[in-house]
Amino acid sequence: MKKIAEINQIPPGRSKLVMVNDKPVALFNINGKIFAWDNRCPHRGASLSDGNISDSVIQCKYHLWQFDVKKACSIVNPSIKINVYEIEIKNGDIFIIL
């Protein structure tokens, strides 16, 4: 496990980009639950942490592809998946499980 952020750095409805072993990881706070995804949109590699965030959808801001927050896949084509990272939160610190 490696500490990557603190929970108070990501307000609800916001995101934070962190680097883990030279890989960009997007952290999203959706209604108090933290999600950790590969930051690269599978369409053209744009940053997902810069996208639009709602209670159920992360939308890439470049080509407007939408991804289901809970399923980590494209809404229009569920076979297009986002890489998800397992995390653990302890005493307000976010750890990624490597």
Per-chain topology:
Blueprint lengths: L1 E5 L8 E6 L2 E8 L2 E6 L13 E2 L3 E3 L6 E3 L4 E2 L12 E4 L2 E4 L2
Antiparallel strand pairs: 1-10, 2-3, 3-4, 5-6, 6-7, 7-8, 9-10
Query: What would CATH call the class?
Result: Mainly Beta
The CATH superfamily is Rieske [2Fe-2S] iron-sulphur domain
- What's the helical proportion of residues? under 10%
Number of helices: 0
Order of helices and strands: EEEEEEEEEE
Instruction: Supply Rg.
Output: 13 Å
- Look at the helices and sheets and give the structural class: mainly beta
Mean pLDDT: 96
What number of domains?
1
Q: What overall geometry do the principal axes of the alpha carbons give?
A: globular
Total number of beta strands = 10
In spatial order, strands of the major sheet run 5-6-7-8
Question: What is the terminal-to-terminal distance?
Answer: 6 Å
What is the correct CATH architecture? 3-layer Sandwich
The CATH topology corresponds to Rieske Iron-sulfur Protein
Identify low-pLDDT runs: none
Biggest sheet overview: 4 strands, antiparallel
* Strand percent estimate: 35-45%
Descriptive labels:
four-stranded antiparallel β-sheet; single chain; Rieske Iron-sulfur Protein; mainly beta; 98 residues
